[in-house]
Amino acid sequence: MSGLGDLVAGLGTLLTPMMLFHAAWATLLGIVVGSLPGLTATMGVALMTTLTYSLDSTSAIFVLICMYVGAIYGGSRSAILLNIPGTPASAATSLDGYPLAKQGRAGYAMGLATAGSALGTIAGVLMLVLIAPPLAEAALNFGSFEFFWLAVFGILISGQLTADTTPLKGYIAGLLGLAVAMIGSEGIHAHVRFNLGVGDLNAGIALIPAMVGAFGFAEVLTAMWNKAGEVVAKKDKSDRTIPDLADLWRYKFTIARSGIIGTIVGIIPGVGEDIGAWASYAAARKTSKEKEKFGHGSHEGLIAAETGNSAVVPGSLIPAITLAVPGSASSAVLIAALFIHGIRPGPLIMIEQPHFVGLISAMVLIATLFMAIYGLTLTKAFVQVLRVPYSYLMPVVFVLCVIGTYALSQRIFDIWIMVFFGLAGFVLRQMKYPMAPLVLGIILGDLLDKSLRRGLTLSDGDLAPFFTRPVSAAFVAVIVLSIAMNMPAVRRVTLAPFRWIGARLNA
Amino acid sequence: MHMALADRLTAILFLMLGLALLVGGYTMDRLEIRQIHPASIPGLVPMILGVLLSICAVLLYRSSYKPEERNAAPVFSGGSWGRLGITTVICTVYALGLVGWLPYFWATFVFAVCFTLIFSFPLDGERRTQLIAVAGALVLGVGVALGSSLLFQELFLVRLP
User: Fold this and answer.
1) Structure ipTM
2) CB atoms within 10 A of CB B31
3) Checking CA distances to A96, which of A29, A175, A190, B12 falls within 20 to 30 Å?
4) pTM of full prediction above 0.90
């Protein structure tokens, strides 16, 4: 229970006028960024990282967390009003939110989305404070062998679950990310690899320019490529924003289940908010008594989707803080930001900064509070935000991409990296390659490389410890199973017992 | 273009990249002179990645011939090539050409004004709406250039390009 004590202590640290001021503007900005189609949470966090270099570490991380929480929630605005998810996380929200808006009940849909998001985040925060400390403690026993498999597992599972069409493209994206991480000076002998004769590549490719490119510039291109949506203007006189408590109580099990699903999805490396929302939505539809309403303005569907995607935020922080393995693309940027501000995420965090988990949980909670206040009060203002034309918005975003990247180490070369990743990211996205495994590959490449070679040195070239140590063996089993599950015959055999139990329970 | 053809082309590209990683890793300095453990040579992981990427590329190439819905799906469709082309050119020219060549304020001003005017100038509109569009672009240009210069130079103490 010391986690909850740390949470209260964290709240005490953050409840100062200056910190609340930071939370107020950063959450509002996050909601605006999230609500604009074409600007995603990851892009917001990446750009905001470049704008918070000069803040002290607690304020900077607080601003980034508020941006993250606000943006994931903000995506629901455009999903409801435009039928275009502001961020991919809100794709499931549009299924029931948009029909509600067309019925003239956009305000109520936004109110439900706000309540769902707030409750989802709170559920995730509770799991964050309870799970993160023991997980970090367990990870203290990890050696090179386990960290190698953890990195492999992260990239593989992210590739498998985030790919749109075939897991193969997810795996390829992960391998490309790992290949990018091979560029520059390696971590054991400081030998420079694949610098192609360019001196600027000796230090490798920094994550922030790559992320700003892949999520900033690529999204500017995608936004200009796509057609704009129409804002729903119809309004029912009985429409209101404050959700009915009876409505929320009726769906208490859906909320709890979606919160847990979202957090678990968040914990899985590199599997982001969109999967959390879809998984919660699918589970809610499967168990609902009003299945027929799903897709036609179901309150339950909307709550499930929003609770699911918001619970991923604190969920994704669990592996990010304790293992330095990001649970989502946005938390990958957060890891980079933590390093910039002198905080070293990983198993040692509970020894070096034992109160950090409590502090970051408190940050998420305060961000949620501001999100709920804005969500329930500023609905009309958000409709106006959606009317800002891209021709005015996108040059501002791109200027921030350029100057933010440059400001990191004041090198023009980083701008070249950003542009390259932007163009490559756009092409890869159009061809349905997911970005999350690519980013995870860049982040985990160093860990994977060092752990494999260090492990082999420790075992004098013997591969056995990679397979015989208990945690390693468990990782290997899961990895083999998740690859084998792509084969229909294996999937049928593996899922047969679960289907059998499910059929008995339904009978 | 259909996804099958796009996948085939990228599979060839990835195969070449995979082989390049393999060869690059194999021919990489093994640092024998520093007497490192042979299992910790710097080229080990690039070689493994090269093999895996090549395998994935071959599987991708093979899967593109399967009669599946996803292979028949169109790629690079449903959007505007004109808008994409102009955005790519104007952004690339700004980031890779103007920044560093012109002082940051002027580079950003020119970029923001051009971007806004190209995408919002009403060619067939009345003179008044055209003037409003130009004024809007100029205000945005000055605002973005001045705002970002002041923010980064004065507040974050960045020496602007």
Assistant:
1) 0.94
2) 17
3) A29
4) no
